[in-house]
Design brief:
Layout (H helix, E strand, L loop, with lengths): L12 E5 L4 H12 L3 E6 L6 H8 L4 E5 L7 H15 L4 E4 L14 H29 L2 E6 L12 H21 L4 E8 L8 H5 L1 H10 L12 H8 L10 E4 L7
Parallel strand pairs: 1-2, 1-4, 2-3, 4-5, 5-6, 6-7
Helix pairs in contact: 1-2, 1-8, 3-4, 4-5
Bound molecules: NADP nicotinamide-adenine-dinucleotide phosphate (NAP).
Length: 256
């Protein structure tokens, strides 16, 4: 196998959560361009975003309806079974779906806390656990958790998000320790400040926008496409000896 072949995902099946928009859509498109069929787990039926990009790359797309804020373990198991049933296997899981709720720390509500932890951390762990079971049986697989700069820093007005993303890195390391010997690679990507709905409020605030931009060595907000190379790498055989890594794709933010 040549080194470029090691990056190819031909014949693989990937499950991407939150594939309808933002980073998830770019991730789904990248995996398909590299050769994988893609299942998108979304709250709403596909709006044409990911499905169109995946099929334009010549790969199959399957939509799975699931609200991770309300999903039970049985719902998640059914989602994994549906991927295997419809696309013939499960080689790659990208835990991308996530939300952010902003409020001053003294006012932060239990409702916001519980929902953010449920979607960003609990559902991601349960999906990874269920996918890993299948991957171990099948002889291997790749799990990629989408972490954040707030896996390393505290952030402002987002305590539940910060806790969930610190937790997701902890889960990544814990799972990598137990699964590396079983052929399953568990890694994370920590995106920097990227242009998606998640950061619309920050970009709309001239003071926060300027302060963020001033601190990014690359000098610009990240585009979703700038995450694609890291995802394909970690999903591929080129990363077979990479376990428990947290790869920043942040324009150099953490280097400062
Ligand atoms: P986004 O544009 O707001 O997209 C979030 C995605 O998560 C959407 O597809 C959304 O589905 C899905 N989602 C939210 N709640 C869900 C639920 N209850 N059940 C199922 N899906 C749900 O945000 P994004 O920036 O692409 O974020 C993707 C991931 O990257 C998140 O984990 C986020 O924390 C992380 N991240 C983003 C940045 C950034 O700068 N943008 C930086 C670091 C990390 P719907 O379309 O149905 O709403």
């Amino acid at each position: 196998m040549t080194i470029l072949d090691a990056f190819r995902l031909d014949g693989k099946v990937a499950l991407v959560t939150g594939a309808n928009r933002g980073l998830g859509r770019a991730i789904a498109a990248a995996l398909a361009e590299a050769g994988a069929d893609v299942a998108g787990l979304n709250r709403s039926s596909d709006n044409g975003g990911a499905a169109a990009l995946v099929t334009a790359a010549g790969r199959r797309y399957h939509h799975i309806a699931c609200d991770l804020g309300a999903a039970t373990r049985a719902d998640l198991k059914a989602a994994i079974d549906e991927v295997i049933d419809q696309l013939g296997g499960l080689d790659i899981l990208v835990n991308n779906a996530g939300l952010i709720r902003r409020a001053d720390i003294l006012d932060y509500s239990d409702e916001d806390w519980n929902l953010v932890i449920q979607v960003n951390l609990t559902a991601a762990f349960q999906l990874a656990q269920l996918a890993a079971g299948r991957m171990v049986e099948a002889g291997g697989g790749k799990i990629i958790n989408i972490a954040s700069l707030l896996s390393f820093q505290g952030g402002i007005r987002v305590p539940a998000y910060t806790a969930s993303k610190h937790g997701l890195v902890g889960v990544t390391l814990a799972m990598a320790n137990e699964l590396a010997g079983k052929g399953v690679n568990v890694n994370a990507i920590a995106p920097g400040y990227m242009v998606t709905d998640n950061t619309a409020a920050l970009r709309a605030d001239p003071k926060r926008n300027a302060a963020i931009l001033e601190r990014i060595p690359a000098g610009h907000w990240g585009e979703p496409e700038e995450l694609q190379g890291a995802v394909v790498f970690l999903a591929s055989d080129a990363a077979n000896y990479v376990h428990g890594a947290v790869l920043p794709v942040d324009g150099g933010w953490l280097a400062r």
